[in-house]
Amino acid sequence: MSTMVRARPVRAIGVLALAIALWLPCLRFVYRSPPEALRTRAGGLSPLARSLLDRQVALWSASGPPQRELARMRASNPEWDLMSRTFLALALANAALREPARRDALVAVIDRVIDDTLARERAQGQRHFLLRYAGASRFVDPSQRSVFVDGELALMIAARRTLRDDSPRLREELAARAQQIKTQMERGPIGSAESYPDECWTFCNTVALAALRASDVLDRTDHRPLTQRWLSNARRTLVDPATGMLVSSYTLDGRARQGPEGSSIYMAAHGLALVDPAWADDQYRRAKAHLQREWLGFGFAREWPAVSDRASADIDSGPTVPWVGANAGASGLALLGAATFNDDRAYAGLVASLDLAAFPVVEGGTRRYAASNAVGDAVLLYSLVEGPLWNELRARGAR
Amino acid sequence: MKKLFALSSLALTVTWLVLRATGFVRYASVLSGTLPEGETSLATGTDRAVVLLVVHVAFVLLAAPLALSAACLHALEARDRRAAQAKRAARDSGT
Q1: Neighbouring C-beta atoms of residue A352, cutoff 10 Å
Q2: Mean per-residue pLDDT for A151-155?
Q3: A with B: how many residue pairs have Cβ under 8 Å apart?
Q4: What is the mean pLDDT of residues A46-57?
Q5: Which residues of A touch B66 (CB under 8 A)?
Q6: Chain A contacts of B84, Cβ < 8 Å?
Q7: Closest residue in A to B24 (Cα–Cα)
């Protein structure tokens, strides 16, 4: 009897270990959705996209922008304020192309986003959307402007105009931003423009290239020579030798400041998809190989490749989970990469991780993630509906 | 152990439900480096975010296996009891 009593805790622990071993592979059946339930290929919106879209539309209702949401983010990083607006405008444009019946209503929301962003830039300058150190020194370029702000605003306006080109004011605004970006890139020694004083980001420059491409399609301009110059310089000076990925930031004359980062490379690949699809695809494949991981059906992305010696997070990256290296910013933007390059399996794994660890909150038929913020929700929404806008610009550009 | 497992599973589930129902989940925004609603600094919400995360991870990873283990142990003990009874009955009939 005493042997039996002693054996019982051992047996209990063994049963628990076995139950855990059986349960962990089953978690994917609880949290992982089939790819076709997430992103629809042939127009329309998935239920997840619709529930996120409805919340964003409600937030940007006629009463104005969601001040509290944006203020909570701005306390950490004012860049996220502008990025959330850009991703939202792009998401709304794609949703409008997917659901033409909602086009007018969604264009009205995009207009509110653009008007409010322009008003804030006019009132408080571009530094309203930049981290404080933007004011610590002067930009090298005499314009003293940030391509982060000009590029994202240009892309937002181009997306709006792709849906309905009925505003002379927006036509002028896009032409002026495109000219500004062109002038700065032409003056740059390697064809890049600064986001911060003597600090260029591949994220911002590729967004600007996408905006210039959209401007070419909409306004019959031709920025292809400028784009080719950027691409050939980037291939020569901005590629990390260890991974073959684009570095994330560099000086105006092309010296790398920070190597490849998950929070930059996926957006860079997304922007490049409009101007150099083959290289964009190559960059995504490399980013996937060096940064993305999947375990038991749950995907995540690291901020830095394993070969990198970076160990500390910066403000752009957001928090990183210790040991595994899963990073919030990198994983969020990996969704956009996976969506852009039709990597359905990786996409489903990343969304499964969101549902597992980002605390989904469903209220009144709309959805958000408590662990996320306005920019995170906008990136997720954009990744769910992405595709039609780039396709539309490609098709019009080919005519 | 069976009772311990069952009660632990129940406690984790109840704690998780209470945290969700009381709006504690707003502290999860710390995970994206964003101020929780109603807070003025990230630091004040961090402790609560850690509590939320620990309870959530424990609930997701352990609540179901603990309940399953309790059920398995219950079944094993019942089988042991039946075997012991059968053994006793065989011994009694033999004498």
Answers
A1: 22
A2: 98
A3: 86
A4: 94
A5: 16, 19
A6: none
A7: A370
A11 touches chain B (CB under 8 A): yes
Write down the residue that tokens 């089988």 correspond to: B79
| Band of residue A1 on the pLDDT scale cut at 50, 70, 90 | very low
d(CA A375, CA A234): 28
Share of chain A above pLDDT 70, in %: 95
Whether the CB of A324 is below 8 Å from some CB of chain B: the reply is no
A30: nearest CA partner in chain B: B60
Express each pLDDT in A105-140 by its tens digit. Answer: 999 999 999 999 999 999 999 999 999 999 999 999
C-alpha–C-alpha distance, residues A242 and B51, integer Å: 39
Of A187, A189, A196, A117, residue with least CA distance to A155: A117
Mean pLDDT, residues A156-160: 98
Q: Where are the domains positioned within chain B?
A: 2-94
Longest CA pairwise span in chain B (Å): 80
ipTM for the complex shown? 0.87
**Would the CB atoms of A319 and B31 count as touching at under 8 Å?**
yes
Chain B hits for A14, Cβ within 8 Å: none
Return the beta strands (E) in chain A as ranges. Answer: 200-201, 249-250, 256-258, 292-295, 298-301, 360-363, 366-369
The verdict on B5 touching A (C-beta cutoff 8 Å) is yes
Sign, CA dihedral A46-A47-A48-A50, equals positive
Which of A319, A381, A326 has the alpha carbon at shortest distance from A353? A326
Q: Is the Cβ of A1 closer than 8 Å to some Cβ of chain B?
A: no
pLDDT at position A244: 97
Distance from CA of B92 to the nearest CA of A (A): 19
CA-nearest of A343, A366, A376 to A270 is A343
Partners of A293 in the β-ladder? A300
C-beta atoms surrounding A59 within 10 Å: 20
Residue B55, Cβ density class (10 Å: 0-12 exposed, 13-18 middle, ≥19 buried): middle
Which pLDDT score, from 0 to 100, does residue A35 have? 85
Name the minimum distance, in Å, from the CA of B18 to any CA of chain A: 14
B19-75: pLDDT as tens digits: 999 988 999 998 888 888 877 777 778 888 999 999 999 999 999 999 999 999 999
